Amino acid sequence: MPPAPVTGEAVINYPGLIMLAIHLTAAGILAAAWLVRRHVRDQVKARLSFAVLGSLTAGLVTIPVAAITLGNAILFTGTLAAAMTVLQYTFVLVVAGTTLFGVP
Q: Cβ(80)–Cβ(63) under 8 Å?
């Protein structure tokens, strides 16, 4: 059975992929914030722990979203390289955000 014609248009799929990425990232960030608030008392350690967990979440979410979006168009090593880049940038942004606003 051929797929529905709407799945052939990439523009239609972007909102769904964005919502998938937002939901996965939000769940990971909430879990990271809960873990850090529950187990870490020192402010500096809490900020660094949250930055590590938040960036790890963003990097891990990149892998399935890129795999769904790009399929076989890119090698898995390219997907991992993109996930590492996201992890690095997110770490810096989370450290800056927690410095200004604290751990959520």
A: yes
User: What percent of the chain clears pLDDT 90, i.e. is strictly above it?
Assistant: 55
How many Å apart are CA 44 and CA 41, to the nearest integer?
A: 9
* Count of CB atoms situated within 10 Å of the CB of 81: 12
* Rounded Cα–Cα distance for residues 83 and 101 (Å): 26
d(CA 75, CA 45): 36
Question: Rounded to 5 degrees, what are φ and ψ at 9?
Answer: -95, 120
Tokens 């909102």 locate to 15
| pLDDT for the residue 89 | 95
Closest by CA to 36, choosing from 26, 25, 50, 55, is 50
Q: What is the pLDDT of residue 11?
A: 60
- 3-class state of residue 2 by DSSP: coil
The span from the CA of 15 to the CA of 83, in Å, is 21
Both tokens assigned to 90: 């997110």
Q: How many angstroms separate the CA atoms of 31 and 54, rounded?
A: 9
